[in-house]
Amino acid sequence: MGSSYFYLEFLLAWLEILQKAGYHNPAIFALEYTLVPDQIYPLQLQQNVAGYEHLCSIIKDPGRICLAGDSAGATLQLSLLLYLSKASFPGRESEEQQQRMPGFATLISPWPTLVTPKNRDTPSDYLNAESLHLYGRQYAGSTSNLKDPLVSPGVCKDGEWWTRASPSGGFCFMYGSEEVFGPEVRDLIALLRRNGCAVRVREEPGQVHAWPVVSLFLANTLGERTKGLRDLTKMVREVIEPVGGLVDGVEAGS
User: Fold this and answer.
1) What is the distance between the alpha carbons of residues 199 and 133, in angstroms, rounded to a whole number?
2) Is the pLDDT of residue 171 over 50?
3) Which residues pair with 251 in a beta bridge?
4) CA angle at residue 85 from 68 to 196, to 5 degrees?
5) N or C: which end of the chain has fewer CB within 10 A?
6) Dist. CA 130–CA 254, nearest whole Å
7) What is the Cβ-side half-sphere exposure of residue 174, based on CA atoms within 13 angstroms?
8) How far apart are CA 164 and CA 127, in angstroms?
């Protein structure tokens, strides 16, 4: 399901909602990254970095960029933020690093830690923890890589690193209360908040993994189908205000 074409209806619906929210010329850059098992880490992160650098070359002001992604795509966005803010990043001073950070990150049901006992099946969610751990190990390529924050962001407990990794406007997390990744997402949110990061949260009661995406395809009414996107856009607008005549960029990973 990682193809941008699978998400085309979702992205077009979001584009329309962004326009109605007052964005003069919103643009969505959807990254078509290589999936497992065709390739493994670090190719997907390298592709995401290249996509972000391309977007920065167009937008000029990274503060107008909102990173977005759901599930593994949201995990890649967390990896991207940690990569951009890594203390040993060659040739980049800390101030310059901050100038390259995006304005906001909207993360739908991220997969913070690829393999952990906290990823457990629930009665409601359609995901299976055992299968997810298999895919996570395939992506990592080795057991040692599972301990690398750039592979599995949830293993990073370095508060200072996460503070550097925060977009200028902070994070937004949207996830379902019944999903497999719920405990890990809550732990990451708590860690970010303890270290002074701005975090907006929408934990939808009774919902499952990637509920804004699932709802768009399966809900009965238009209001139910677009609820997640409208909530998401509202939070984006609180951080990145519409400016007439400018292109506002959203980089989406799926």
Assistant:
1) 27
2) yes
3) 29, 67
4) 80
5) N
6) 21
7) 23
8) 32
**51-103: pLDDT as tens digits:** 999 999 999 899 999 999 999 999 999 999 999 998 555 555 566 666 789 99
- What is the DSSP secondary-structure string of 104-161? EEEEES---SSS-TT----SS-S--HHHHHHHHHHHH-STGGGG-TTTSGGG---HHH
- Per DSSP, what are the bridge partners of residue 67? 105, 251
Q: Return the pLDDT at 232.
A: 96
Neighbours of 168 (CB within 10 A): 16
Q: Say if residue 218 is exposed, middle or buried (CB neighbours under 10 Å; 0-12, 13-18, 19+).
A: exposed
Question: Which 3 state secondary structure label does DSSP give 171?
Answer: strand
Distance CA 214, CA 207 (A): 10
Tell me how far apart the alpha carbons of residues 220 and 74 are, in angstroms, rounded to a whole number: 26
Task: Please work out, in degrees rounded to the nearest 5, the angle formed at the alpha carbon of residue 166 by the alpha carbons of 7 and 91.
Answer: 105
Task: Identify the DSSP state of 35.
Answer: P
* Amino acid (one-letter) located at 58: I
- Under 8 Å between Cβ of 112 and 148: no
Cut 0.70: pTM above it: yes
100-146 pLDDT, tens digit each? 899 999 999 999 999 999 999 999 999 999 999 999 999 999 999 99
